[in-house]
Amino acid sequence: MKKSSAVLSGIAALALSAGFAPAAQAIDNPGALITGGHEATESYEWMASLQRADSHSCGASLIDAQWVLTAAHCVVDTAPADLGLRIGSPTWNSGGTEAGVSEVVVHPDYETKSPNGDIALLKLDKAVPQTPIELAGSSGEAATPSRIIGWGVTCPVRGCGQPPEQLQELDTNVAPDSACTLSSIDAATEICTSSNELLANACFGDSGGPQLEGTPGDWKLTGVTSRLGSPVPVCGTAPSVYTDATAYADWISATIS
């Protein structure tokens, strides 16, 4: 977890979760997706597509044989029976292992400090065979290389298209907290995440998906996609904000055990 002080601006941020209606129109609570990235170059067997009505809604990460980690805004006030997951496939609509959800656990801070505490755990209705990803010991300091992955529209405006079938990835880096002040970032529990590519970052559809640090084949989970880093509703115009999953390690451990 980064040690810099929190910077709060009071300007509302835009959540990045995604459900898609039939006519290429995103519904009110869409998930974050990646714009400016490219198709995944390796296998991420712990990556999950969180779905509603058989459509991709948000990303999630398998962290235990029967638990996935996602964003609170993807599942708050949602009944477990309305959710499903596809785990371990590079396509959100085929392959991998399908599972239902038996329990939704939203971090208590999300109800009282929203958008802070934008993290949730989902218990699967069965154990799955995929190998979970390991949570990092802490998130990196500014300039640390990272990677984000997810499904969703690759254009930068809400409702501009349907999610691609193939998982997308983008190499990113941890940005100084000052680069995300327009989204009221809390440096103790959130990560400001930037990209060197023009108009490239998380976008509507990737919410709940992971931020990774490490190297190909040896990634550790550090962040959970939360929201845009500025009030401008166009992806890639500013860094994105990720919930620092490592700051909630004790809560995660206590919940799944």
From TrEMBL:
Signal sequence, renumbered to the chain: 1-23
GO biological process: proteolysis
Keywords, comma-separated and alphabetical: Disulfide bond, Hydrolase, Protease, Serine protease, Signal
Entry superkingdom: Bacteria
Keyword check for Protease: yes
Record-linked InterPro entries: Peptidase_S1, Peptidase_S1_PA, Peptidase_S1_PA_chymotrypsin, Peptidase_S1A, Trypsin_dom, TRYPSIN_HIS
Gene Ontology MF, one: serine-type endopeptidase activity
PROSITE patterns: TRYPSIN_DOM (PS50240), TRYPSIN_HIS (PS00134)
Domain called Peptidase S1: residue spans: 34-257
Family indicated by similarity: Belongs to the peptidase S1 family.
Protein name: Serine protease
Organism, scientific name: Saccharopolyspora rhizosphaerae
Lineage: Bacteria, Bacillati, Actinomycetota, Actinomycetes, Pseudonocardiales
